[in-house]
Amino acid sequence: MVAKIFIDGEAGTTGLQIRERLAGRRDLEVLSIAADKRKDQDERKRLLNAADVAILCLPDDAAKQSVSLIENDSTRVIDASTAFRVDPNWVYGFAEMDKGQSDAIANARFVANPGCWPQGLIGTVRPLIDAGILPTSHPVSYNGISGYTGGGKQMIAEYEAASEGASHFMPYGLTFQHKHVPEMTRYTKLDSAPLFVPSVGDFAQGMTTFVPLQLGQLGKVPSGKELHAAIADHYAGIKDSFVTVAPYQEIAKTPVLDPQVHNDTNTMTLHVFANDARAQAVLVAVYDNLGKGASGAAVQNLNLMLGVSARESLAA
Ligand SMILES: NC(=O)C1=CN([C@@H]2O[C@H](COP(=O)(O)OP(=O)(O)OC[C@H]3O[C@@H](n4cnc5c(N)ncnc54)[C@H](OP(=O)(O)O)[C@@H]3O)[C@@H](O)[C@H]2O)C=CC1
Ligand SMILES: CC(=O)N[C@@H](CCC(=O)OP(=O)(O)O)C(=O)O
Questions:
Q1: ipTM
Q2: Which residues is 30 bridged to in the sheet?
Q3: 39 vs 11, 35, 44, 75, CA distance in Å?
Q4: What pLDDT tens digit does each residue of the chain (316 aa) get?
């Protein structure tokens, strides 16, 4: 059976990328909306109800509206927005988060695609919490840099219009109320919100994130190799993982931390750097905000929901 897919918001940054990733797939039919009807509620409703899977690439309010327009009990939904990420009726779409997550996604009707920033934090911290190395009470801080496509069409237009004026490096979220904090807290299993300081750079896509750890604050101080082994063990146990763990290296710098190294792929690479004598470490994640951070993860989730081999079809 050819599954019918409707991308609501197909003209936006994430929607366009998903369309490109699905182009050429013979196992799917993409139901496209006429350009002049993109925001026509009746036409969106018709297509949402005609689809086997609707992928919502919309601002939060419009995503909530799309869900309310589904009147059947068969259309399954992948939502790329923040609207449902901590809703207990939705399955969180970070397939590598734990061993049961890809099955939960495969069987779900409603899947909330994870935010780009949360994945770098959850992907590094949760394996350490699950392994009992970090207590859930640990005060975690998280920072990083993302390309400007993370801000969608509006930020892209601002950066691309400002040939001279765009900021090379812009920290933001400085009131510590970033919209990703609730999902970061819930899915890391931390007791309290991580202190999150994102930044945006003057490059289009790709991101590198950092979790600095003062290991001396822990009752039992792990070595860098132990941190690395716990994270590597977690991913070794995940079927069809798109998250890879780089070998442990004691080096002061490396070009593979460039935020753009995984652009246009669904890959995330994790690194552990540490100084055991100082009991200090940093956990690093490198991935594409538009790939594993958004449209790559959405297509990975779609494949799980359709029972299609993730590796084969993510080549698209
Ligand atoms: N960019 C990224 O890296 C990531 C984005 N996301 C999330 O994905 C979602 C989409 O983001 P992104 O693609 O970046 O955003 P964009 O602004 O690039 O695209 C959003 C699209 O939705 C359309 N739209 C807005 N309101 C409606 C409506 N009522 N009915 C139909 N279409 C509507 C917009 O129309 P118009 O073209 O007229 O503006 C636009 O085409 C957001 O919730 C975002 O937070 C998630 C992870 C990463
Ligand atoms: C650079 C930039 O502005 N990035 C966006 C995050 C993009 C993203 O992940 O969107 P969702 O919130 O829908 O997941 C931000 O920090 O708001």
A1: 0.95
A2: 5
A3: 11, 9, 7, 20
A4: 799 999 999 999 999 999 999 999 999 999 999 999 999 999 999 999 999 999 999 999 999 999 999 999 999 999 999 999 999 999 999 999 999 999 999 999 999 999 999 999 999 999 999 999 999 999 999 999 999 999 999 999 999 998 677 899 999 999 999 999 999 999 999 999 999 999 999 999 999 999 999 999 999 999 999 999 999 999 999 999 999 999 999 999 999 999 999 999 999 999 999 999 999 999 999 999 999 999 999 999 999 999 997 555 544 4
Shortest-distance atom of ligand 2 to CA 173: 16
The three-state secondary structure class of 32 is coil
The ligand with the least distance to the CA atom of 9 is: 1
CA distances from 291 to 47, 230, 261 (A): 25, 25, 12
Query: Which member of 18, 77, 105, 116 is catalytic?
Result: 116
Is the distance from CB of 223 to CB of 277 less than 8 angstroms?
Answer: no
Who lines ligand 1 at CB under 6 A?
A: 9, 11-15, 38-39, 57-60, 62, 80-82, 115-116, 149-150, 152-153, 289-290, 293-294
Domains of the chain: 3-114+294-314 (3.40.50.720), 116-289 (3.30.360.10)
Residues 297 and 304 sit within 8 Å (Cβ to Cβ): no
41-50 helix and 60-69 helix, angle to the nearest 10 degrees: 60
Q: Are 261 and 268 spatial neighbours (Cβ–Cβ below 8 Å)?
A: no
Judge whether 116 counts as a catalytic residue.
yes
